[in-house]
Write a structure and sequence with these properties.
Blueprint lengths: L14 H11 L8 E3 L7 E6 L3 E6 L7 H12 L10 E5 L9 E5 L4 E2 L2 H4 L3 H16 L19 H10 L6 H13 L8 E3 L8 E4 L2 E5 L6 E3 L7 H4 L3 H11 L3 H22 L4 H16 L1
């Protein structure tokens, strides 16, 4: 039940390893059943622990630090948010060959949001806007910088241009380049940086009985330009619902254009990394890229 190395950045994680970590570090939960959640996200291996808990182990170095970040910040943000968010319960330590901190959180019931289920929903569009307005209105205090700043579009420029070249055979490369250039050139966020989810897309939304119920995966939580969170409009919503979302959010032209840039760059990143091996991701990111181009 020790982690078998799968390269220094991606340890092998299986249920036996997770069982061993939980039983040794949190013996009060040793008797609870452990079930792999599949499919999970690209950043974590997730197991359900009993009926009320989940265990999340980072798959790679890029996700390290999320457990402690969520444990500190989510209890402070959650009371101000209109949708449920994960409730951290404990942070486990590296052990049994597994190299990083890992998290135990309260289990959130629900199914992943889908375009088929919510893409045309004006109600969902308004609920997403309300969530973001609430998150953005929670002013970072003097400790806010400890969560880190969100990434900027400029920081993604080299990798985005490389990705545009790599996918030029399947997409309109001149149109992608024009959108990217415009997003970089438009006016930046004016005013104080705000709290941003940082990875606000379809896969990080849960639904119960066909309605939005929760927002998960705050690993990219940080302070910065709110345009990063507009990517949800291009991963989930139809053009009509997207218009409702923009109106409810009150996004000006520059913010919307930067949001399209975020949808393009994150869509390209996921497409080049996973489309060849995951038909599901390929379909999602193709839609995202084309939606960003359409506006």
């Amino acid at each position: 039940m020790r982690a078998r190395a799968a390269g220094t950045d991606r340890p092998h994680i299986d249920t036996a390893l997770v069982r061993g970590l939980v039983d040794r570090q949190f013996p009060q939960w040793a008797g609870l059943p452990l079930t792999l959640v599949d499919p999970a996200g690209s950043d974590h291996v997730i197991h359900r622990l009993g009926d009320a808990l989940s265990v999340r182990l980072p798959r790679h170095r890029g996700a390290v630090g999320q457990a402690r970040k969520e444990q500190y910040w989510l209890p402070r943000l959650a009371p101000r948010l209109p949708l449920a968010v994960p409730v951290p319960v404990a942070v486990g330590e590296p052990a049994l060959g597994y190299p990083w901190p890992w998290a135990v959180t309260r289990w959130l019931d629900g199914e992943a949001a889908t375009v088929e289920g919510l893409g045309n929903s004006a109600e969902a569009a308004r609920e997403l806007a309300a969530f973001l307005r609430a998150l953005w209105s929670f002013a970072p205090d003097e400790d806010g910088g400890a969560a880190g700043a969100t990434e900027t579009l400029a920081e993604r420029d080299p990798s985005t241009r490389e990705a545009i070249g790599a996918v030029a055979g399947g997409f309109d490369a001149p149109a992608m380049t024009a959108l990217w250039d415009a997003a970089l050139a438009c006016p930046g966020h004016r005013g104080t940086p705000v709290w941003c989810h940082g990875d606000f897309h379809t896969g990080n939304l849960l639904t119960v009985d066909g309605r939005l119920s929760a927002v998960i995966d705050f690993g990219n939580l940080g302070v910065g330009d709110p345009a990063v969170d507009l990517m949800v409009a291009f991963t989930l919503l139809s053009p009509a619902a997207r218009a409702v979302f923009r109106t409810a959010l009150g996004a000006d032209d520059a913010t919307w254009l930067r949001g399209r840039g975020w949808a393009l760059t994150t869509g390209l990143s996921a497409y080049t990394a996973y489309a060849a091996t995951s038909p599901r991701v390929r379909a999602q990111t193709e839609r995202q890229i084309r939606a960003a181009l359409a506006g």
